[in-house]
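Q: What would this chain look like folded?
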Amino acid sequence: MAPPAPGSQDLDELVALARRFADQRRFAEAAELFRLAQRLDPKNLGVQLALAQLRRQQKAPATPVRGPREEAREEARRNVIDAAHFLGLAYLYSERGEPFRALECLEIAQAKDSGHPGPWKLAGRLLLARQDFDRAAEMLRRAARLNPFDLTTAEMLGQVEYERRQFRPALEAAIDAFLLCGEPNTERGERLRRRIRTLRQALGWENRRVVELFHERQEALRLAYERLEWRRERFREEATLLERPSPPPPPRPPGDGRLELAARIRRQEAWGHLSDEQVFELARGVHVERHAKGSRILAHGALGADIYQVEEGEILIERTTPYGVFPLATLRPGDLFGEVSFLSRGERAGDAVAKLPVTLLRFDGGALDAAVARSADLGVQVYWGLWHAVSRKLRDTNEQLRTFFPADARSENFLRLRRPDRGRGGQVAVDSTDKVRLFRESGLSNKELVTLATFSRELRFAAGELLFGEGDEGREMYVVLEGRVLISKFIPGAGEEALAILERGDFFGEMALIDGEARSADARAHGGPLTVLALDQATLREMLALDPQASLEFLRLLCRLLAKRLREIDEKVVGWRILAGPGHQNLTA
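A: My prediction, written as structure tokens:
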């Protein structure tokens, strides 16, 4: 049988079969077929090229199988490359006068790499040229968020907002552009000055308001810059740690600048839930203090709203009484103190003495109030942290009551009889107007009133009935609607100790709502029937899903309640320490 003529169908089928073998990494069979095809048509350049490529594939190592993480990284890398290519193509179409095709490319680039400001900036410029001002403003605002230091973006955004007659945003963008302009005395700088004057007149503002806005925008740019500087320092530190072997970096002297303070705050677990921007905002009112052993940082009965955080060393919280000095708590790195006075604006509840040489972060109370007033979002995060800190202290203080008597002194019969059969409380119907009136008496906002009145459950308990006992699992907090509640704790060797008697409008059980831990005390109906409103963790999530200002008001209220409760328990502890005498062992140390 004669060999097939060059270019025949048989030769094509032979080459196609060889390629399939190569795709399956069956290189030996593919090479044999390519050599047969080459003998049939020695001058076929395609066959020669395929054979050479096959030899390179045989020499190349097998591609390792990548896991999901590596696949995701490779996909992200390809997306970034694709976005850059589409951006370049969009610039080409733009220069050729084809804006529609350029915008199509930019849409793909934005989808591929949404964090790159280039596609958003170019899209804004093209839409501005087409006088599509609303879409242009959207694109340019996104570009400005991704790169707040771009002078051209700020200029275009100011122009677009002016065309949209949004004069306040236009003025902000014009001020940003002026601040970013390296040479304000140039023609560009003079043009920006004229625009600022025009916008001031359009707004009808006095010079004082413009100056205030200048300071505000300058601070925002400085904050963005310092945030990047901080990220750069952290990146360099991490890179230094990864280099091996390398000598350790020289120790830096302790710095108290804003950048250094932000880094120190970020290392504290209590503020770990804050964003970088919020940490920098918080750092504006933080000062570093160093005290020698035995120094008195706070005095019982003094006024003040500053909050302190232990960075190094230990702090002893104690109370001086006519019967002696009694310890309340020992605080270690990461612990806060002084926050109760910040929340209640009352006198200091005890002395704070340096048990060891200490380094403290002092959060200026006035500066913290100002920061919360400027940003409700920051306020929610700050009060969330304070809520948890005070809750932990309240639990620890409750546990101190166990230390006053030996464990073997407790009466087993009393332990068995101290809790009658508890009920779950009967479901009752309460008029919604009465619920709203109760919450308004408690100082809640209108949005909180609606949420609490909608999601709270009404429960009724008979006189003496136990709502919950110490050690019970807790997922709810309660508000007294009618009657009174006795909060008590069993003290080994002494029996039941009343901690508080709560009346209409008082909250209790809120600590379990925060962390879901076991109840730290008993709660029972006192002196008659009791009606309460029960709020569970789902209600809390609903509250915090409201706008930040409403959430802030709600958290402030709960923090004040916890602070009040902590002061009351501290008084109980001091009283028991006086009764127990000076020989009582301090278990808090």
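Residues 1 and 104 are 58 Å apart (CA to CA).
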